[in-house]
TrEMBL record, chains A, B:
Assembly: Homodimer.
Pathway(s) per entry: Cofactor biosynthesis; pyridoxine 5'-phosphate biosynthesis; pyridoxine 5'-phosphate from D-erythrose 4-phosphate: step 3/5; Amino-acid biosynthesis; L-serine biosynthesis; L-serine from 3-phospho-D-glycerate: step 2/3
Cofactor(s) essential for the protein: pyridoxal 5'-phosphate
GO-annotated molecular function: O-phospho-L-serine:2-oxoglutarate aminotransferase activity; pyridoxal phosphate binding
Full protein name: Phosphoserine aminotransferase
NCBIfam families documented for this protein: PRK05355.1 (NF003764), serC_1 (TIGR01364)
Amino acid sequence: MARVHNFNAGPAGLPLPALERAQRELLDFEGTGMSIMEHSHRGKAFEAVHNEAISLLRQLLGLSDDYHVLFMQGGAAMQFAVVPMNLLPPGRSADYILTGGWSEKALEEAKRVGTVRVAGSTAVDKRYTRIPHQGELSLDPNAAYVHMTTNNTLFGTQWHWLPDTGDVPLVADMSSDILWRKMDISRFALVYAGAQKNIGPSGITVVLARKDLVDSARKDIPVIFRYATYAANNSLYNTPPTFAIYLMRNVLAYTLEIGGLEEVERRNRKKGELLYETIDAHPDVFRAPVEKESRSFMNVVFRLASEEMEKRFVAEAAKEGMVGLAGHRSTGGIRVSIYNAVPVASVERLTAFMRDFAKRG
Amino acid sequence: MARVHNFNAGPAGLPLPALERAQRELLDFEGTGMSIMEHSHRGKAFEAVHNEAISLLRQLLGLSDDYHVLFMQGGAAMQFAVVPMNLLPPGRSADYILTGGWSEKALEEAKRVGTVRVAGSTAVDKRYTRIPHQGELSLDPNAAYVHMTTNNTLFGTQWHWLPDTGDVPLVADMSSDILWRKMDISRFALVYAGAQKNIGPSGITVVLARKDLVDSARKDIPVIFRYATYAANNSLYNTPPTFAIYLMRNVLAYTLEIGGLEEVERRNRKKGELLYETIDAHPDVFRAPVEKESRSFMNVVFRLASEEMEKRFVAEAAKEGMVGLAGHRSTGGIRVSIYNAVPVASVERLTAFMRDFAKRG
Ligand SMILES: Cc1ncc(COP(=O)(O)O)c(C=O)c1O
Ligand SMILES: Cc1ncc(COP(=O)(O)O)c(C=O)c1O
Ligand SMILES: [Mg+2]
Ligand SMILES: [Mg+2]
Ligand SMILES: [Mg+2]
Ligand SMILES: [Mg+2]
C-alpha cells in the first residue's frame, strides 16, 4: 500500500528518508556485517551514532555548553517521577502550572514524591481551552522549580510565551513540541521529551539539563534515576535503547539536511495556518474550542456538530488514506497532529477533504 | 559485507530471519501504509503485535496464569531499583546472593532503597569462579525476598540448580540466560531480564511476576514504577518502546518456528560443549577459571598465557570475521557469548580457529 497520511498523536509518522536509511542498512550497518541493533553499546560503531545524535541536537537547538544532553528510557511519564526525585528535596515545594491532562499527570506523580503546589490552572469543568497569562500565576519565589507543559497534546493548546519565574528553575515537558521551531533553551533549567512525536520512535526520552542543576540534584535516590549518572556516563551507564537512538539520529540528520529548524518552523506554521483557516472558514461545520492566541501548531483540535458527524468525518477521511484523526479517548472530537514529519502536502490533502466535507454538510 | 560471527555480550546478535522480516516491512507494516514504529500504541495493528509477544513468551515458557508478563523500559539495571521499591517495605529486609558483578550492582542499588543482607557470596579477591551450594547460603526466613542472578555475564558462571528459599519469594535477574532452555518459572516469584541478549534488541525489559506478589506490592511509590500499573494496563500505561517489542515478537516467533525451547537448548548445549571441549583439550594454551559444575552455557570465559596473547587472539579472530571476543573491561580475558541467536556454525568456526591458534602457539 502507498504510505498513508499519518496524523497520529504519538507514536507519530517519521520522515520517509530516515526510515529508508534504516531499511537499507538494517542487516549490515556501514559494512560491519551486523545490524546497528547487534552492535555493542560500548563499541565504536554505536558510539559514533550516539554522539552524533547528541551533537545534532546541540547544533539544531544552538544549545550552550551549560547544558547536558541526556538520553533516558521510560518515556515522559517516567520523568513525571524522576524530575521531583532529582530536584525536589524534603522540606521544599515545587510549583506546577496546569494546562492539560499531561500536566495534571505530572502533578499527581510529583505528589507521590514530595510537596507540590498548583501555581495556576486554566481548567474549566476539567477542560482546558487556553494558556494562562502571567498575571494569573501565583508563583512561590522559594519553589524548588516551576513545572510547565509547553504543548498540550490532548487539548491542542500551546504556550507562545514563557512565564517569568524569576530565580526559580523552569522545568518543561516538551514531549509534543520539542524542535517544532528554534527555541531559546536557556530560558529553561530542564527540558524533557519523549521522542515519539517530533524526533524519533518511542522508547527514547531526551533530557536537556543545566549542568549546575544536575550537580546540585539529590544524591539519596537510586543511581539509575539520577541525572548525574547519565551526565557522568554520556548516557551509557547501562545499555541504552540503541536502535531508538540510531533512528532518532536519522531523523535529526534529515532535519538538518532540509534546512534545520528555520525550515521546520516554516513548514509547521504553514500546516497550522492551513488547518485553522479551513476551520475558521466553516464555523457552521467546524468549531475550534481553543482560544486563538493559545492554539497549538502541533495538535489542531476541533469539533463537529455531533459525535455521529465526527465518526463519519474520521471514517470518510480514513477511506481516503488519512489516519489518526480521532481525538484522545478522554476528550473526543477531532485531533489533527501535525508534528514535524507530517508533510505540508498531507495537510493540503486534509484541508481539501474538509472543504468538501463542509460543502456536503 | 557478509554477516560476521557475532559473539557480543549484549546487545547481541539477532536471528537473521527476525531482522529480515523487520527489513521487509519497515516502510509498510502488513499493508497499513506505515511502519510499525509509526502506529499508535493504542491501535489494533500494534496491539496485536504486543499481545502476540506476550502470548509467545507464555507459550514458549509454559507459563501458568498465576503470572503476569510485563514489558517495561529502563533495562535490567532499572529493575535493580524497581524490585526493592515494589517488594521491600520499610521494616523488612531482603537477601542477596552474590555470584558476580551484576548481583553486586543489584545489591548496591537495593541498599539505596531499603535494608538488605548478603545471604551468600562466592567472591574471592573480587572474582567469582563458581556458584554456591545450598549449605553455603545463610537465608533469613523472614526476608521480603531472595535475589539471585541466574547467569553471570561477566564471570561466565551459571546456576544449574536453584536454591531452596522455603516460603521466601525468589527473585531472579535472568538477563543473560532467559529462554536459553525450558525453565520452571513457578520456582520464582519474579523474574526480570533485559531483552538484548537472548530475546531481542535493547530498550525492552521483560518481567514475569506472580500475581499475588504484584497485588501485595508497595503502593506508596510513583505509579510509573509499580508493577501493578503495568499489570492493570497490559503494559500500555504509557507509550511502550513499540519497535523493540515488535522485534522481540519477531525473535520469539522465530524461536517457536525452529522448534521452541527444546531445540534452543539442544543448540545451546552443543555450542557450550564444543567450546569447553576445545578449551579443556588445550590446557597449555587456554585456561577456564570457572569450576566445571558452574560453567555458563551463555558466556564462556577463558584466559590465555598473557594479555598480549589475548589481544592477538582477539585481533586474529576479528580478521576472520569473529567479533565480540574481548572480555568485559572489568575482568579482561576472553569471553565468548553464545546466546540463543549465535549459530552452531559460528561456534564450529571459532573452535576450529582456537585449535589452529593452539597449534601455532
Ligand atoms: C505532553 C506529553 N507529556 C507526556 C506524555 C507521556 O509520554 P510517554 O507515553 O512517553 O510517557 C505525552 C504523551 O502523549 C505527552 O503528549
Ligand atoms: C545479568 C545482567 N544483569 C543486568 C545487566 C544490566 O542490564 P541493562 O544494561 O539492560 O541495564 C546485565 C547487562 O549486561 C546483565 O548481564
Ligand atoms: Mg498520547
Ligand atoms: Mg495535555
Ligand atoms: Mg554487559
Ligand atoms: Mg555478573
